[in-house]
Design goal:
This protein has 123 residues and is an alpha+beta fold. Helix content is 31%, strand content 26%. Strand 2 and strand 3 form a beta hairpin.
């Protein structure tokens, strides 16, 4: 006949359940659409991306939803001593759909603050 391999395991479910993180936090799905913008910056090499993100978050105020770093580049086509940094930024209001004017106003404030506080300029 054909041989079969049989494995037997014993699991202590109480130990497994006790070790699980059962403090799950649920967040309501957003009711209103997000507005997305990319920010491509040119900054001095010594400027930390965490500092740029801090400026973005502060300037974005309550309609800023997410900030995601997606590119840091140094090299060809970037001036010596500089780096290119790119973020994807999402804006959203909990109580309404945002207008383009609202988003543009906050986006422009972010750009001005990045230049003033961090010396970073749009590419």
């Amino acid at each position: 006949g054909i041989g079969a391999t049989c494995y037997v395991a014993e699991l202590d479910l109480k130990t497994i359940f006790d070790a699980m993180n059962t403090h799950v936090k649920y967040k309501k799905l957003p009711r209103f659409p997000a507005a997305e913008r990319d920010i491509a910056l040119l900054a001095d090499k010594g400027v930390a991306v965490a500092e740029l993100e801090k400026t973005i978050r502060k300037a974005g105020g309550e309609i800023l939803d997410t900030v995601t770093l997606f590119d840091v580049y140094e090299g060809a086509q970037i001036p010596k001593g500089k780096k290119s940094i790119a973020y994807a930024v999402t804006f959203r209001a909990a109580d309404r759909s945002l207008t383009n004017d609202e988003v543009n106003k906050v986006f422009n404030k972010i750009i001005k603050d990045l230049e003033y506080k961090n010396g970073a300029v749009l590419r």
